[in-house]
Amino acid sequence: MRRSWDRIAMSSFAVAALLANAGCAAEEPSPPRASSAESSVQPAEPAQPEAAPRNVILLIGDGMGPQQLALLLDWADAAGASPTHFERLTDVGHLGLVRTGAKGSALTDSAASATAIACGVEVPNGVISVDENGRALRTCMEDADASGRMTGLVTTTRLTHATPASFAAHVQKRNQEKEIAQQMLSTPFVDVMLGGGAAFIDVANAPEGYRAVTTAAELAALDAAGGPVLGVFSKSHIPYAIDRDQPTEPSTVPTLAAMTQKAIDVLATGPDGFFLMVEGGRIDHGGHLNDVAAVLGEMREFDAAIGVAEAFRREHPDTLVIVTADHETGGLAISFSGRPLLPQHFLAMTEQESSIEAIAQRTPKEAREAVDPKIYGVGRAPFYPAYSWWETSRALETSATYSVSFGTQSHTTTPVAIVAAGPRSEQFEGLMHNEKIGLLLREWMGPEEAR
Ligand SMILES: [Zn+2]
């Protein structure tokens, strides 16, 4: 076991500070250039000893605060799965803290935060990469495309959901998903799009030249060199990892790691580098539902995707890998409430067989109405979702027994971690606001003459 258990009692901030202290590794040696073609693309910059990254893999854990990271790390310690890919990345990278507010609000939603990360501009909540006059704000993904790089979006949410949309579309309200889908398909510049959302994106309308896939097997069979890809694997969001591969029904949905690997394989065939955004989009949804087992499942899913990205970076040192979040969700706390917190308690969270969402969906309405909410013990579990109280007992009892609580069903202002490895990763040390990420990405992904 790598870490002592006493840090479980620390606040989120203390955990973040601990991670920050542990994560600042020595400079890596200058990597060899990957190809001679690249040096002609990237001019020498006397003020910057290291060239801007050729490839960027940006991984966003939606709703992933420091305590969600600590949940993953504590589970990994208990399960003998340490170090996690996240920890391995901190060992070689640079770590900072990101404040996540939106314009006019200390509290952000995913649209405003993703716009800040994609464009480097602070906008009000709900806005997808437009300014106050409705004009498109240029995104780092559009810059990457203009500079000759290939681009990709991978997510476990609908492809038209706020985080992926903010990199590739421009609308005033995040719920304009039909319009977002139309923008993504009618003027396609994103070479690889993998996620959920068939309700808005019909693969039958895939742009000309795109290969369309709808199952994990079809995705796995794709030749990396065969051109652009549109993969839509579920009607809405991709099911929670905890709900995948139920014994009676093997899933046809790919893992986030499998989507990330295929996206990298395809994008790496381009001659001029790539920009890939990978979203662990449903850590947030587990937080909103106060479903700690679902959160842990999504964290493990996200960590596996970090491993895929980092494996590519180790082979291609001109690649920058960034892992961060748009905000924290749920006010998750793992705390002390009169009983010791033991490794087996973290393992027990993995015994919850499905998400609250899935449990609620298969419960007959009559059963809901027959259940007295009082038996679920308001106060025993510190919090429960009002609209699914009738079938949350298992999750709630897990939470109550193991001293897991949620402070809210919404987002919080808790700063989130950022860890980066590769060219210019030292720029992400310290405390920053989320637009800084977008400003740096826009600078690095911009056309050569703009650098
Ligand atoms: Zn959310």
Percent range of helical residues:
25-40%
How many angstroms separate the termini? 45 Å
- The total beta strand count reads 13
**Biggest sheet statistics:** 11 strands, mixed
Oligomer: single chain
Give me the CATH superfamily of the largest domain.
Alkaline Phosphatase, subunit A
* Number of structural units classed as domains: 2
CATH architecture of the largest domain: 3-Layer(aba) Sandwich
Secondary-structure-based class equals: alpha/beta
Bound molecules: zinc ion
Number of alpha- plus pi-helical segments: 17
Query: What is the residue-averaged pLDDT?
Result: 83
- The low-confidence parts are 1-40, 366-391
Tell me the CATH topology of the largest domain: Alkaline Phosphatase, subunit A
Textual characterization of the structure:
- With 451 residues, this protein is an alpha/beta fold.
- It has 2 domains: 10-23 and 51-335 and 410-450, Alkaline Phosphatase, subunit A (3-Layer(aba) Sandwich), CATH 3.40.720.10; 343-406, no CATH class.
- It has helices at 12-23, 36-41, 66-79, 85-92, 110-119, 140-146, 162-168, 177-186, 216-221, 256-267, 283-288, 292-315, 343-348, 356-361, 365-370, 393-401, 435-445, and strands at 55-63, 94-99, 150-158, 192-196, 211-213, 229-232, 274-280, 319-329, 332-334, 404-406, 411-412, 416-421, 430-433.
- Helix 9 links the parallel strand 5 and strand 6 (229-232).
- Helix 5 (110-119) runs parallel beside helix 7, helix 5 (110-119) runs parallel beside helix 17 (435-445) and helix 10 (256-267) runs parallel beside helix 12 (292-315).
- The chain is globular and about 60 Å long.
- Bound molecules: zinc ion (ZN).
- The site of zinc ion (ZN) has 6 residues, from helix 11.
